[in-house]
Fold this protein.
Amino acid sequence: MNKFLTLLGNFTWLRVLLVMVLTTIATAVVKPYFMSEVSFSYLWLRLFIVGMLMLSAFIIGNVVHAHVFPKRFSLLQIQFVALVSGAMLGTVISGLAIGRTLNEMVTNDAIFWGMVIFIAVGVSLGVVAATVLVYREQAARAAADASQADAERHELEKQVLEARLRLMQAQIEPHFLFNTLANVQHLVEANPPLAAKTLESLITYLRAALPEMREGRTTLGREVDMANAYLEIQQTRMGARLQFLIDVPTNLRAATFPPMMLLTLVENAIKHGIDPMQQGGEIQVRAVLNDSLLDVSVADSGQGLSPSAGVGIGLQNIRERLQALFGKTAKLILEENTPRGMVARIQISNGLSEH
């Protein structure tokens, strides 16, 4: 039953339309042979029967090649035999349909040569039609293969980038972790309350960071919590040289967001923007929703964009991951901040979670 439905599915309206067009051409070709004996529509109907039988034989030939003789005969051989068989069978059936007998078709010279003309014209135009169909099918198959190859390449790139991310996450910046613990150890004696606050921020950071290693996406709220804890720890280290502000509306905390990207922007702002400045500076983390576009920005009042600095590995990694995860619906934008510093902005379409 399934094979029968598959067979019927090959009778597309485009193929039937092609048969009708070629039938019209064939009728115009053979009409002079019959002179005024028969009408154009009469010949067209008979040749249309031949054409449909040839189309049926062509489709059946493809099925036979695929399931019966996939290696013994080539597809072109089977298709040619199918077209000739369909032309002959269609010519005979069209003759029987108008009341002629098999004996008349064989013994009457005029009828016989008329059948030969029908078959020759049918086979000739059938070869043309088959060439068109095969070309279209090959082009469609090539396009499908190219699309599948692109999809597989895209998925492979995505997996490579995610593997790279997980490797980075697995390290959890060892020097940052050890420096923080050493700082806590020092503060235990010098400033116990600040040591407790720093340790609390470190625990918050680790709670948010560790689950990210097993997930491809998380929520903006969790990323913000991790960035906040990281900034609190850095503020303990830098003192008054680092000020920060986080402005993320509650309704946006449920938005889906790729893991570790916000933290990378914050780290970049401290390392390349605030840390090199003797007087330090401020970092502002903001999120807004414009229509369906989630805009998350990290602005610093540090050194700003340097024409010779280029794009760091962390920012390049963000660009590649955004491309792999979202395609053209997401991007990383770097802008100069006013009056000084840099703004790194991640924009993602449809950022809100459906849950």
Remarks:
- Residues 169 and 213 are 6 Å apart (CA to CA).
